[in-house]
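Weekly sync, protein design subgroup
Attendees: M.S., D.O., the rotation student, P.L. (late)

Item 1: inverse folding check
M.S. brought a backbone from last month's batch and wanted to see whether the design step gives back something sensible before we order anything. D.O. pointed out we never logged the input encoding, so this time it goes straight into the notes. C-alpha cells as presented (410 positions):
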C-alpha cells in the first residue's frame, strides 16, 4: 500500500536530510570479488583512486563518498558488486530485530516504489530462520517508508536480478545490513554478449588477466577462446575503457543520486582511464577448435567495438604458430576445456600434457596464465609458475598458474 504523500515542506526537509546524511558524508563499502582474487581487486581499486583494504575472503573494503562507489561500479572489472554498509546492531529476538530495522532511516536511501528483495544469511545466532528474518525486515522497511509517503514493492528477485537488494547477515546475534549499489551483477557488462557453454564470467576473466599483469604485455593469445571473454576484457584494459561503462546501476534510483554529478564522474573516469591506457600498439589473437565458438567470439568482438584490435579464428591450438616478434611481449591466457566443456571420452590429463609440451616448444619466453583443474592435471601440464591462485570455477576447484615473461617486469 502506498504511503500518504508528504507536504512540500516535508519533502524539502527530507531532501535536506539526504544531502546532509548521505551525499555529504563518507560511508563504508564492500566490493565483492571472486574468492582468491582479493588482492588483485584491491590493486585495481587503488588504480581508480580508491583506497581499499582486505575485507576477508571474497571481497575488499573501502570507505568514501558516493562518488567512490560510482567509480568502483563503473571502472573495476574485477568486482562483482559493491555493497554500502548501512547498519550494525545486536538482536536476540525477532521483535528487537524488527524494531532496530524499522528505526533505520530507509527513506534516505530508497526511492519511492523500490522493488525490494532481501538476501539473508544466518549462522550461530538465536535468530536463525532466514525466511522469518526476511519477512520481518520487509515489514519493517515498508512500514518505515510508508510514514514518509513512500512505498516499496516487495518480493523482488533474490540474488542477481533487477530491483534493489538488501543484504542481511546475522552472525552470533550480530546483524549487518548492506544495500546493493550495483543491481545486476557487474559481470553483465551491458553489451548483449552471445555465449557458448560454461563461459568464464567477465569479472573472473578480468581478475585472471589483471593477476597476470595484462597491462605489461602488447599481445594476448587465447587459443581456447569460447565466447571470447578474455579478448573482451583485455580489449577494455588495452583501450582504457571502464568495465561498466555501457550499463546502469541500482544507485541511479537512490534519492541521493544526482545525474549531472554522475555524468561528470563518468566523463572524468573515462578520461583518466584513457590517459592511463598502455602506450603503443596492442593486438589480441583468439581462436577455438569449435567453429561455432569462433563465430560467437567474432560477433562479440565486433559488438564491443574491438574489431580493429582483436581477431578470432577457428583453429587447432596444437597447429598454431606463435605471433611474430618479441616473445616477452606475449601473454598466453588459457581456459582449456574441463568439466561441462570437456568432450565425452577426452583424456584430460593427456590434453594438459600436450598443452605443456606446446607451450615449452613454441611459447618459451612468453608469459602465461593457465587454468588447471586438479593437481593431477597440473602435474601433467608440467609448467613452472611464479604465482598460483586457487579458486573455484563453476563449482570445480582449479588453480591459476601464472608465469611472467622473461622481461615483463623490467
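Designed sequence read out in the meeting:
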Amino acid at each position: 500500500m502506498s504511503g500518504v504523500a508528504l507536504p512540500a515542506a516535508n519533502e524539502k526537509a527530507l531532501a535536506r536530510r539526504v544531502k546532509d546524511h548521505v551525499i555529504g558524508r563518507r560511508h563504508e563499502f564492500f566490493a565483492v570479488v571472486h574468492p582468491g582474487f582479493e588482492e588483485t581487486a584491491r590493486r585495481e581499486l587503488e588504480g581508480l583512486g580508491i583506497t581499499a583494504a582486505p575485507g576477508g575472503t571474497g571481497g575488499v573494503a573501502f570507505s568514501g563518498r558516493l562518488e567512490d562507489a560510482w567509480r568502483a561500479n563503473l571502472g573495476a572489472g574485477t568486482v562483482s558488486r559493491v555493497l554500502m554498509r548501512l547498519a550494525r546492531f545486536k538482536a536476540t529476538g525477532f521483535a528487537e530485530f524488527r524494531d532496530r530495522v524499522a528505526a533505520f532511516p530507509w527513506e534516505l536511501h530508497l526511492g519511492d516504489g523500490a522493488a525490494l528483495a532481501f538476501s539473508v544469511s544466518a549462522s550461530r545466532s538465536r535468530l536463525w530462520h532466514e525466511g522469518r528474518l526476511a519477512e520481518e525486515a520487509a515489514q519493517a522497511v515498508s512500514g518505515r517508508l510508508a510514514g514518509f509517503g513512500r512505498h516499496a514493492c516487495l518480493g523482488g528477485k533474490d540474488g542477481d536480478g533487477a530491483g534493489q537488494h538488501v543484504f542481511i547477515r546475522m552472525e552470533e546475534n550480530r546483524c549487518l545490513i548492506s544495500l546493493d549499489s550495483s543491481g545486476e551483477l557487474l559481470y553483465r557488462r551491458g553489451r548483449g554478449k552471445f555465449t557458448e557453454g560454461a563461459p568464464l564470467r567477465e569479472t573472473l576473466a578480468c581478475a585472471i588477466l589483471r593477476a597476470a599483469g595484462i597491462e605489461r604485455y602488447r599481445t594476448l593469445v587465447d587459443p581456447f577462446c569460447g565466447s571470447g571473454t578474455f579478448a573482451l576484457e583485455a580489449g577494455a584494459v588495452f583501450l582504457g575503457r571502464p568495465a561498466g561503462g555501457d550499463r546502469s546501476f541500482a544507485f541511479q534510483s537512490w534519492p541521493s543520486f544526482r545525474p549531472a554529478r554522475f555524468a561528470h564522474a563518468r566523463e572524468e573516469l573515462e578520461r583518466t582511464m584513457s590517459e592511463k591506457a598502455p602506450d603503443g600498439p596492442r593486438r589480441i589473437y583468439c581462436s577455438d577448435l569449435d567453429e561455432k565458438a569462433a563465430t560467437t567470439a567474432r560477433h562479440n568482438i565486433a559488438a564491443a567495438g574491438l574489431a580493429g584490435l582483436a581477431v578470432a579464428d577457428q583453429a587447432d591450438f596444437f597447429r598454431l604458430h606463435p605471433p611474430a616478434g618479441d616473445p616477452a611481449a606475449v601473454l598466453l591466457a588459457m581456459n582449456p576445456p574441463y568439466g561441462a566443456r570437456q568432450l565425452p571420452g577426452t583424456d584430460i590429463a593427456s590434453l594438459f600434457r600436450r598443452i605443456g609440451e606446446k607451450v615449452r616448444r613454441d611459447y618459451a619466453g612468453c608469459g602465461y596464465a593457465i587454468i588447471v583443474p586438479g593437481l593431477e592435471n597440473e602435474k601433467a601440464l608440467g609448467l613452472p609458475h611464479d604465482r598460483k591462485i586457487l579458486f573455484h570455477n563453476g563449482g570445480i576447484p582449479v588453480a591459476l598458474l601464472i608465469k611472467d615473461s622473461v622481461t615483463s617486469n623490467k
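Discussion: The mean pLDDT is 93. The longest strand covers residues 79-90.
Action: P.L. to compare against the previous round before Friday.
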